[in-house]
Design goal:
The structure is a homotetramer of 372-residue chains. The first copy, chain A, is of the alpha/beta class and 372 residues long. Chain A contains 13 helices and 15 strands. The model of chain A has no long low-confidence stretch (mean pLDDT 95).
Chain lengths: 372, 372, 372, 372
């Protein structure tokens, strides 16, 4: 990765963000929460006014309607992508070709050929392809992994990861053309990556998924409830549960089972201040419906998800201070498992890996079976 | 405070630490966790070898046996004190006279005249006197305060704060000559400061304390269990519970009661990963007895206490970027309440404030009554 | 107690209830939940229609407007009192004189002379005077006591008991003439009895109380928030917290601290099914404001408070199968401590026991000091 | 069911127990905890001394080595079976032919023909065949069902049930010849029955199971870890997790997800007294490894599982006071789902129901596939 460390080791990495909504805001605030390694200097978003609004909120000097214009700025070294899934591949390739490092939001892209092209282009261009899987940096989950590595649980044979809420914040998620999949793709990509990472990047041997559209059938033909079981090469299991149907606010939890012990890590109820309010207050937690009555407000939400730590890591990789911990290759493993998961739900059986997709987008592996 | 901002606004504040034990280690690591505003460049500790050991652990370049030597270093702008309570006043005065900013660990000092002299000297020398009460920066407690300020609980009439463990880490705490008091002084100083801060620095109107030496009478004549009730000018109550007798690891919890709601904030069980291990692992939490069996390991412990945030704040105050949020005056309020608390336990009655001490050290207000 | 066991040992004890509201309903349902030792055959309530309504709900055959008429029924062996506090003494005496066993709700009565007369009359008449302190029978608290007796915590030096909600269910509680005291009398009587019982009925040496009327000053001149510290003869502390100002539903919790361990027992959040509902459902828990949003519904509430077990115990005492575990003497200890607590709040100091009341009702010890 | 109510409606049902170990003890104590409807008068166990021991512990008058001798006692009306799974069918048939009502522990039996013969024989003999699934009577789970029926969660599409510990108490469970299956059969039978019952006895449409022997391969060829997904006719999912590998004591938890809400019911940590003890105490909870250190002791364990309530129900059914809520037919549904589950794990695919077994015992459906 030849372009790293070219600049003065002490200089902050200058960052551009593509996008202006929910996730772009999180990137912007995360760079400010851990400011010593990087700073956001530009935002690009095609809807007039959107980039300006975010730029003003975080005192970001430059805005662009077309991200390709932003890529011409010579001082920008790293660009983060928060656009809909179907745009990830093209943007990554454009960024890499402009000689800049890439941080791409999850899931990496829509198809395996896209993933391959993204990885290859970045390699050829000598730029980093960072895969923004924040669960690798979530402090509570990192602690679980440390305890596991210290032998606290003996040999681990089951890793459970679950993320649930009542549905995504942007409308494109409901549209399978833009998203490529439903809850399994949107939320399960976290859980699949997590199990893979937690178990030491063992190969995925098989995938089974149970999918359904239980609550939001009027809005989407994608899955809104998913259970996914992964078998790994060393015989351990990953179990991923994800849902767009869960009431009462965001839910993210991990459980680790070894022959010598267990640990439970809950990011929401398990970190919260159980609170009752007659009058309500500012904010409880992502996707919480109200702050009146009982609620579970969390504190320093972004930090507790690990996003500032993740962005700091990518900047440090750019400066050659750390080795990449969340790569395009990790993202590709997830995409392959998502195809296999959707295919499994369509076929009603466990799919052995490696899996060669038979449909364009992951979700189509399931939808075409449902329709047939 | 004329000495601030003299240097380049972008330069990190250079810090010296007095001490080399538990608390000094926490200071050193805290500055590294949030490195963008300050860096530790020196440690002073009178026991040969101690400063070296800590300096090596955190790559700190300079060590001193005598802190007065360290004060001669011209580039050091801020010095933090982690020495036993009885040394706080003299050290603060020496630091201030050397023209450097002071961060003094809790409790501020042993006596009210000491507190006055510390505050006056720093004022005269134009240096900051920061009072290292980390609960003002604890992220979970800061969230509770934000919800309160947003009106979530209506008018608040009761703030409870509790800190308990099985006894301090350094032997000088057990010696009343060096510590000036027992659990109420060591741990209650946090709770008293917290209630005062949470309720908007209303004047303390009265203090009642129930003290006893229940478990460690062989080790100390100080109190190892304390309940302390404070009445504030606006009629709200503070209730502080602290103990050196609590088994099973550190405990720090706050509860807020208003006419319109309640919130509970637990820093330990309430943030932990409930964990069972047959084999044990590295570390669970401050003062936990073991990691075998069930335990409540926490993650990013210093950050969750707020210590890096606190140190960052002091550095930013030095650079003129923030206004001091934890001052010598706050520490003095606590000392006065501690005198009143010990006097109350001695007299068996509520002590009205302001209170003019009748004993040398806070604990003597109680001990002399017990002995008479 | 000569009247016990006169009847066939296998026959159920026939019970009459005085009262028809909240607590009378609880008695009626509790006898049905554990039906093998007793059955309710009559209810007396002065308001026309009230006794009928309850009788119908629980298929109770006989109703009376005047409890004295009910006392003439020869087959009734035991009468339970759920009337306002000021009526407890006269009713107890009438029941005893009718040769029937008495179960009196908490607090036992209003004054110490009343308590003495109740105890003496029952003794003279050879009838049981059962004091309905259900915390002695609460299964979770009984487990805590068993663990303590098995040595799990070593020597215990601190017992905390807390009961809080947003104010009582019947209007007479707010009227100090009928209730004799506020939250300390209504809820603190549980906590005082609990600490006394848990610590093995050690003598109470001193009482300190902090009282205030923070939220309901428009409704009552009684205390709606109370903290009460009791010193026992063997040097252990009891700490009782009670409140009529706590939002979000009923709260009842106990904590035990010994030199060798701790236990926490929470009857509400700690037994509940954390639940989120958009639509609401039947019932969550005593005094919960709503079932929409997050709530903490409990299951088998009466059983988890221990009330059926308590009523069964009293019936078994009547049949000579068990020794009385909650007596008029226990109730008298509580009344004396309540006087001392109110006097303490008035005087701002710890009151040594035994205490000779100087006011008519407990609350007057405080009110007269506030007004002077 | 012609034999019911033949006796005086007020007379207690006389009960005989087959077995003398863990589960027989639970039956005996459960009848004593709710004694008003039934009493245990006899125990039969083939190992000399065993029945005597239990009989003495609970003051049970009659003991037998051969249960067939016990069946000759004319006054016994109901017999409960706690013997190994492979004996359930023969015993049930013998009891029914003796004209006595049957309560059979879970799982109902080993094979579907056995189940059919048990059901038919009892029907022909006019006796009750009660299936001892205590989760139908667990108070906390009953509350969850009540809330669901009151509409609190809207339409429910996912029911999760999990039971885990570190392996069974009797050695026959490890032997597939005697048990017929591993963790899925031993613990999953609870979860399958629970989902079926909770969702209103909708037909099971398909079953998928992931099984493995992760920790106890030296002891058993049965599964010690199982995840089982059931699709029901009304499109809802059941998810059953069970394990013989979970450290740290018993775990039993249910989660209900509807479009309008969620509830979580945890029978262990969720009811417990979080406790730390240096010295240990009597008993924490079923299968807990120790009471030293942190533990989660529960209170009134049998009652909180619902076993006394379940036994009382069966006695009331015998007396015609209630309609049977847990029948041989329920047990048969579970056996069929177990066959399908084991077959699914063998085939790596979802098995459609009804399923015609191809192996002798449930576990063989999986084992023969593994070996092939």
């Amino acid at each position: 990765m030849d372009r790293r460390q070219l600049r003065n080791n002490k200089e902050k990495v200058k960052v551009g963000i593509i996008g202006s909504k929910f996730e772009a805001d999180i990137h912007a605030v995360s760079f400010q929460l851990m400011p010593e390694e990087a700073e956001v200097v530009a935002i690009a978003s095609p809807t007039p006014g959107n980039a300006e609004r975010l730029a003003q909120k975080y005192s970001i000097p430059r805005v662009f309607l077309d991200y390709r214009e932003m890529l011409k700025e010579p001082d920008i070294e790293m660009v983060t992508i928060t656009a809909p899934n179907r745009l990830h591949a093209q943007m990554t390739i454009d960024i890499a070709k402009a000689g800049k490092h890439v941080v791409c939001e999850k899931p990496l892209c829509m198809t395996l050929p896209e993933a391959d092209e993204m990885i290859d282009t970045c390699k050829r261009q000598g730029v980093m392809l960072g895969y923004a899987e924040e669960l690798f940096f979530t402090p509570k989950y990192v602690k679980a992994k440390e305890m596991a590595e210290q032998g606290g649980f003996g040999k681990i044979h089951l890793v459970k990861q679950s993320e649930k809420h009542f549905g995504p914040h942007s409308s494109w998620f409901w549209d399978m053309e833009q998203a490529g999949g439903g809850a399994l793709m949107d939320l399960g990509c976290h859980g699949i990556a997590f199990c893979y990472w937690f178990l030491g990047r063992q190969k995925v041997k098989s995938v089974y998924a149970q999918l359904g559209t239980y609550v939001h059938a009027g809005k989407t033909e994608g899955d809104d409830e998913a259970i996914c079981i992964l078998e790994f090469e060393n015989a351990a299991l990953g179990m991923v549960e994800c849902s767009w149907t869960k009431r009462g606010g965001m839910f993210d939890k991990t459980e680790i089972y070894g022959e010598g012990g267990v640990t439970y890590a809950d990011l929401h109820m398990g970190n919260a201040l159980p609170t009752y309010s007659e009058y309500g207050f500012g904010y409880a937690v992502e996707k919480a419906p109200t702050t009146v009555g009982w609620s579970y407000p969390v504190f320093e939400e972004h930090w507790n998800y690990g996003i500032p730590q993740e962005m700091r890591h990518f900047a440090r990789v750019v400066r050659g201070k750390e080795t990449l911990q969340a790569s395009g290759e990790d993202g590709r493993v997830v995409i392959e498992a998502l195809y296999a998961g959707y295919a499994s739900a369509g076929a009603g059986r466990k799919i052995e890996m490696p899996y060669k997709p038979t449909a364009t987008k992951p979700v189509d592996e399931w939808l075409k079976a449902k329709k047939s």
